[in-house]
């Protein structure tokens, strides 16, 4: 088993004896299958509540026997007002080249301020989007150093089990792995470190590069998933410290603040 797994991985890191566990996904609501995204809400004091943050609509393969591709469509919740806490239905937004599986999806506003959601899924509808989703995730280049033993999962997000056992393939804490793709599962980001082998990004730290980049022109900023940040730009000919580089949607990017990335095309 060790030889087989090591041969698949992008770097020749060690593989330790797998451990038994079922805790392999992001936090979900105790009473449901809802997923907790990076979102919140504000009580407006007039019986309405305003949502904040983003969620990701899961992209499934087309046709019968559809399964998650690990790709997601970013949906902003910012500014959406609802008239109650608890479970509310929101219309599924439309995207070119995709159709929602359901006309609406559910958002659950908990009394403690947490927000959960469920039922936001899409399928590609044309040759371009079908082809874009034949592979799990999107190109992404970085290195991750694991801070704890990391259970691996396959291209569909299921844990990689060892045949004939109840154990899962686990990579050791302290090992570093080259990443070539990332995908979303249960609102968490997973990095591919080998063929059909992914780890949860929360199980380690990305490689840091401390340096300085200087803008050529007034430059837009983007989130880690490639979404342009509204009303945020950097001035022309200004220098900024950067601690990470990554390939996002095929473009080299520099991190200049928490979840704020500058495109290399805008750098001298």
From TrEMBL:
<dbReference type="Pfam" id="PF03217">
    <property type="entry name" value="SlpA"/>
</dbReference>
<dbReference type="InterPro" id="IPR024968">
    <property type="entry name" value="SlpA_C_lactobacillus"/>
</dbReference>
<protein>
    <recommendedName>
        <fullName>S-layer protein C-terminal domain-containing protein</fullName>
    </recommendedName>
</protein>
<feature type="domain" description="S-layer protein C-terminal">
    <location>
        <begin position="216"/>
        <end position="260"/>
    </location>
</feature>
<feature type="signal peptide">
    <location>
        <begin position="1"/>
        <end position="17"/>
    </location>
</feature>
<keyword id="KW-0732">Signal</keyword>
């Amino acid at each position: 088993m060790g030889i087989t797994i090591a041969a698949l991985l992008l770097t020749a890191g060690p593989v330790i004896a797998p451990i038994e566990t079922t805790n392999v996904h992001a936090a979900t609501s105790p009473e449901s299958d809802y997923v907790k995204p990076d979102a919140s809400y504000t009580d407006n004091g007039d019986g309405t509540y305003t949502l904040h943050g983003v969620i990701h609509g899961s992209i499934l393969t087309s046709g019968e026997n559809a399964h998650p591709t690990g790709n997601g469509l970013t949906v902003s919740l910012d500014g959406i007002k609802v008239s109650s806490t608890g479970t509310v239905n929101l219309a599924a937004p439309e995207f070119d080249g995709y159709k929602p599986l359901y006309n609406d999806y559910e958002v659950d506003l908990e009394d403690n301020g947490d927000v959960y959601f469920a039922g936001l899924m899409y399928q590609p509808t044309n040759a371009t989007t079908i082809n874009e989703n034949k592979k799990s995730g999107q190109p992404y280049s970085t290195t991750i150093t694991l801070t704890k033993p990391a259970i691996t999962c396959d291209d569909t997000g299921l844990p990689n089990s060892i045949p004939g056992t109840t154990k899962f393939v686990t990579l050791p804490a302290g090992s570093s792995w080259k990443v070539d793709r990332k995908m979303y599962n249960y609102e968490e980001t997973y990095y591919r470190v080998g063929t059909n082998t992914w780890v949860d990004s929360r199980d380690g730290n990305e490689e840091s590069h401390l340096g300085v980049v200087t803008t050529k022109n007034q430059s837009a900023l983007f989130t880690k998933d490639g979404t342009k940040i509204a009303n945020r730009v950097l001035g022309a000919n200004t220098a900024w410290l950067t601690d990470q580089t990554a390939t996002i949607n095929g473009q080299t990017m520099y991190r200049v603040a928490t979840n704020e990335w500058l495109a290399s095309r805008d750098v001298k």
